[in-house]
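Give me the fold.
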Amino acid sequence: MPRLAAFLAALCLCGLSVAQGGNVDLSTVPSRDAVQLTIYNSEDLTLVRDRRTISFKVGENPLQFSWANTQIDPTSVQLKFVTQADKLEILDTTFPHDRPQVLRWNVKSEFDGEATVEISYFTSGITWAADYLCVADKDEETLSLEGFVRVTNNSGEDYENAQVRLVVGTINLVEKIAQLAGVPVDQLNGLGEGTISELKRAATEDLLSRQPTSGPGIPAIAAKQKEVIKEGLSEYFITLRPRRGSSQVE
């Protein structure tokens, strides 16, 4: 498998803005606490992890998710309880026949209070491109090299203050999915969309877990998002920092 590298940038991108509440309608609509994008350029695939703090009451609590006018893969949407997981349970997931492009979770709570949830899914239409600027000094004895990353968001959903992981190289995702399923590539279509989405998630997270990160996953994204972060890329180091008021990363 070609070498895969991921480098992490805490970004504040004008091109990645979010409306309060996004495409998630809840019993009490909160804004995002944090959002993380892992962009696989070679596959036109982005893994989104979206965290919110929600107020629950004892009993059943309906939560609703909508993907209208976006490129979100509805078969990949998952809800996970980050806190109070022992007191919360998903009773059922339904797709209302009278409301296309909507799903609803019915969550049973054993307490009154707040909990952090993570909504994760795959989407398409988010890409990145890197450019480099090499400048010689007046004596032409030394050079300075600057790298710039531009993220283009045509997914239909907006993201603000997103932490972004940019995955470099060809990841051979289809082959990895087939390997996990234990079937030839040409038999994947017979597994069903739900099964393929589960395998796709497992494959991408397995590939990403092999790369150096700043911490054990998404909990790091809520803090110090605009600091300069260095991550190793083969024998090189790439420094990324957000430009104020710009959709470029320097």
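The first helix runs from residue 173 to 181.
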